[in-house]
Amino acid sequence: MARLYRQSTTRLGAVHFHAALSQFPTVCFILALGTDTAYWRTANPMWQNFSDWLLLAGLVVGAFAALAGIVALFRRRSADHRPYWAHGLGSVVVLLLAFLNNLVHSSDGWTAVLPWGLTLSALTVLLLLVTNYYGRLIEDRRHVLEAQEAESIPS
Amino acid sequence: MNRQFPISSAAILIAGGLLLPLPAVSAENSPVFDVYQQIGPTPFLPEPDPALVSSVKVAKVVGWKDGAMPKVVDGLTITAYATDLANPRTVHTLPNGDVLVVQSQGPGVEPISRPKDLIRGWIMSIAHGDVGGASKKSNLITLLRDTNRDGKVDDRYDLVTDLASPFGLAWIDDKLYVADTDAVLVYPYKLGETKITASPTVLTQLPGGPIDHHWTKDLALSPDGSKLYAGVGSNSNIVENGLEAERGRAAIWEIDRATGASRIYASGMRNPNGLEFNHESGKLWAVVNERDELGPNLVPDYLTSVQDGAFYGWPWSYYGNHVDARVQPPNPEMVAKAIAPDYALSSHVAPLGMTFTANSSMPSTYSSGAFVAEHGSWNRDAFNGYRVVYVPFKDGMPDGKTQDVVTGFLDGDSAQGRPVGLGIDGTGALLIADDVGNTVWRVANSDGSVTPHPIGSDQFTTSSAASPTQPKTPATAAPAQKN
Question: CB neighbours (10 Å) of residue B76?
């Protein structure tokens, strides 16, 4: 029983670290789509600067979230690996798109956002919806497994 | 250029890691481009090529070691006129032959508005040779006196200290005009004096901080001595700080010397420097740094006569009606107004100094034209500039390609020095302010010829009659010894 307790915290550490960090890229990239849209409508460089910082923050924290996610991957217990692949590879593509978008946004003026910056921001968010779906799926299955385990532990 | 802002090294590492590994990609793919296609009145302008990662190649400043010097062409001799200076940017000769060296550093007030600014600041710090280590206190004017006109400085005095990023100078009627980054100051100054203790008065405020992206304000005195012309560079590469930040900038101001009243004389010039009147035509000329990040071969920097009321395109267009799509909203009205400059110097050479050769004692091949100092490129995969060139003139207009005169500022991929301001000294030799080499170089005619008497940088002479029309105190053959 002591052994089970120790294993449990290790696994939860990486999983929870991943869950906490992965909110940052989600929020940052969605907001960047918003600020890009605002720039598109107003041409006010303030919105462009917001996008730059949001994309950088999302990318940097997203990279740490990915590391935590890789560690958590080794602790996976479900027999069905498909959602892990979908979430993991999808997230890597999200980060690659965000990296590309950081480069596009680092130009000066209107062409740093239109058309490719805004397009990349939209693609990033669309793909995020998919990867987040699989992330939720993994979470749900983990909760089910944990509930089953909790029931099977002799009290 | 601006390093006073606090940057954590972690932020630089993150930002640097983001962009820096990639420039090599574009370098390998670039076909050889003949930069001479972009020198002359009608440069070849390729389509914009804004790479995903801007071409960046920065020469790390190493300084002049073991007596190393720039190279000059046959018929010329180069010597170090003054060393151990603190970022010399411009040189100015007074009618008695004394040379004033303006040494300055940027104000360093440009805020970090975007992640890119961190990387830019870091790149510029490499290119300006101030990567750590205490440097000598800059922002002063030093007087160099060659008493016997042998081309060697005999006495040296710090004339004025604690200025605010000064650059341009003018002298007339016992007044020394100093263009700080935010104002034109007037000091009472008689020729021969070696120290100015009086407080200056402000003739005219100029656009300085906040931001102050292009901070150098060059000065020229009109031939009749009544007006001053000040170059005011833009506050951004291509209005990324908003149009409001560009009020009064990217322009040449005309300032009335008596009242300080000012107006915009010409506009749409991204970063004008090297202001000087042509002795033949009597027109104002300047060299201008054009915009970056449209590819390694756009936009060519230029040398041009400055027409009263003219608009030269920045930010909406370049070379007339070549629209820059980065500027929104577009402004077709201004694009229609934009005129093309007279003479392209090729892309990213960064011309910062210019002087006409009419008052010089240089060989006859340089008798009628202009020397231009090219500080050198960073936004290219192959270096361009880092030299002083000669632009031949005919009938008051450039005629023919540039000729390299002083080279060897680069040593492989390192910069030993970078030329900024130019001037003709009291003996008719060319002086070059080298801001990272902390030296003023003197390039003289190898046959040892000197002008009959010193001619001040502000003195206007015509090529036919070599008698100065101003100042009112005529220059004498012997240097003034009034103090």
Answer: 18
